From TrEMBL:
Gene3D superfamilies: Hotdog Thioesterase. Transmembrane segments: none annotated. One of its GO terms (molecular function) is lyase activity. Keywords: Lyase. InterPro entries: FabA_FabZ, HotDog_dom_sf. The keyword Lyase applies. This is Beta-hydroxyacyl-[acyl carrier protein] dehydratase FabZ.
Length: 47
């Protein structure tokens, strides 16, 4: 499993545009399975 620090080494996005919390499975150049934990406090829910 990859956390935020490892994800930031792979992709250029940073907060608030880093819309992923962790990657469960990853094969470079082929695929990634990641998750974003969403709560009601997220900025995009404020409208």
């Amino acid at each position: 499993m990859l956390g935020i620090k490892e994800i930031e080494e792979i992709i250029p996005h940073r907060h608030p545009f880093l819309l992923i919390d962790y990657i469960e499975d990853y094969k470079p150049g082929e695929y990634a399975v990641g998750y974003k934990c969403v709560t009601f406090r997220e900025d995009f829910f404020r409208g």
